[in-house]
Design brief:
The chain is of the alpha/beta class. The protein is built from 19 helices and eight strands. Strands 1-3-4-5-2-6 form a six-stranded mixed β-sheet.
């Protein structure tokens, strides 16, 4: 169940296994397996206190239970990583050094993650020379693994992927950052916010946050204390409601208020964070996050990182890394997750530390019929030199009302109007060509009522 992201069910099975072990007289091997599994589940949930408790129990039982060297290494390594994430560097150093001292034979190479965590913990306790050596070792192992195809666990990467296939994973390019305008300002952000069609609820929530952050900036300028305001946010709403557009305004706002180094936005989905090959997801997620430092990391349909019922899914690894970096890099990273309200709520509930990482939640309502018509005309007609005849404007109002009234959960709002526009101009072209006579400039620019009704009948606007 842990591999499927169904943590509550996994915890229930663990309780049943604990009761069964008690009835059998608590055999050490059964208890070891139980505590190791509980520690792994808690680790993936970023429940560090519970992970430490379970992994310490597993570590104590490893020798009496006759654990294999590799199983013992896995328990000791995970415990060291937990101590590192609990920000207890002295204990983390001792634990990770004990892990490195375990003898797994000359063919085994400890994973780079061990050396990276050791380097950070050594640096935290002032042992900088040793920290540099540990970091260099991590880079050396990473380079060798990239050449020879070894994963983060030290095993050959030419093993199974999520679908059971074999082979060395390809290197995917990092998602590009969407640049913010140069010479931006707080006032310019608000001008562009006000120019957006609709979004009354999200705009009010954005404005409230922006004003609080602006006052905090002024207070800091006068040497006054400020209330802590997190940079991470949640956007909830259906498709085509402007979430990506507002995420870019958030980046510009944070940059204008000197909260981030740039106003750029790195837009990602599950595919950008989760690898199909064992051991690559944590590395890939950290690479993407590194590329987003000083920027906004926008994760659309973030709940796709958790796939209950999907065997061998690596999404929870990405979530665990994301949680850690959201805390460790909270001064340089702003994470925005977006998607449908119910799915986002369920996603946040999968991990006890997740919801608390986010500050504001912005709500994106579906556009009204009048707003849909305005989007059609302002966002699509005007920029491309089309205009509506007066009767066509009335037909647009009727079509927008019908689309809105018959919408379902998958209604795509602005994207629906884009499809409608594409079909309308295609029908206009067919109409003008079929007429035979050469069209005037005015006719080439004008959409008639039939163009809109035909576009609606084509069905792509409802798709």
């Amino acid at each position: 169940m842990t591999e499927l992201g169904r943590y509550a069910e996994a915890a229930g099975l663990e309780r049943q296994a604990r009761a069964a072990a008690a009835r059998a007289g608590d055999p050490p091997d059964a208890l070891l397996a139980l505590h190791a599994q509980a520690g792994r589940r808690a680790f993936l949930q970023a429940d560090w206190a519970e992970a430490e408790r379970a992994l310490r129990e597993a570590s104590t039982l490893a020798i009496p239970a006759g654990a294999t060297p590799r199983d013992r290494f896995d328990v000791e390594l995970r415990l060291g990583l937990v101590l590192h994430r609990l920000d207890r560097p002295e204990e983390a150093v001792a634990q990770l050094e004990r892990t490195l001292a375990l003898d797994l034979g000359p063919a085994f190479t400890p994973p780079p993650a061990l050396h990276r965590a050791l380097a950070e913990s050594l640096r935290a306790v002032g042992r900088r020379t040793e920290a540099e050596a540990a970091l260099a070792e991590a880079e050396r192992i990473t380079a060798e693994r990239d050449e020879g195809g070894r994963d983060e666990s030290g095993r050959s990467e030419t093993g199974r992927d999520e679908g059971g296939r074999t082979g060395t994973p390809p290197r995917a390019p990092l998602p590009p950052a969407i640049p913010a305008p140069r010479d931006d300002s707080f006032e310019a952000v608000f001008r562009d916010l006000d120019a957006l069609i609709g979004l009354a609820t999200a705009k009010a929530q954005f404005r409230r946050l922006a004003e609080l952050l602006r006052v905090n900036q002024l207070r800091r300028g006068h040497g006054l204390k400020t209330a802590g305001v997190g940079l991470h946010m949640v956007f909830v709403g259906g498709p085509g409601t402007g979430k990506t557009t507002l995420a870019r305004l958030v980046g510009r706002l944070y940059h204008a208020l000197e909260l981030l180094e740039t106003g750029d936005v790195v837009e990602v989905t599950r595919a950008d964070l989760v690898s199909g090959f064992v051991g690559q997801t944590a590395q890939r997620t950290n690479q993407v996050i590194d590329s987003a430092l000083g920027k906004v990391l926008f994760i659309d349909e973030a709940y796709a990182l958790s796939r209950p019922g999907a065997a061998g899914d690596f999404g929870p690894e990405a979530v665990a890394e994301l949680l850690k970096r959201m805390e460790d890099d909270r001064e340089r990273l702003a994470v925005i997750i977006a998607g449908y309200p119910d799915e986002i709520e369920a996603f946040l509930a999968t991990n006890p530390g997740f919801a608390s990482r986010f500050g504001e939640t912005l709500t994106f309502d579906d556009f009204t019929p009048a707003e849909l018509a305005e989007i059609f005309e302002r966002s699509f007609c005007v920029p491309t030199d089309y205009r509506l005849a007066e009767p066509a404007r009335a037909e647009l109002a009727r079509v927008s009302a019908e689309l809105h009234a018959t919408r379902d959960r998958s209604f795509a709002n602005a994207r629906t109007m884009r499809n409608l526009f594409d079909d309308a101009i295609a029908h206009q072209a067919q109409r003008l060509v079929a007429r035979g006579a050469e069209a005037t400039r005015d006719e080439l620019m004008t959409l008639e009522p039939d163009d809109l009704s035909a576009a609606l009948r084509s069905g792509s606007a409802r798709a």
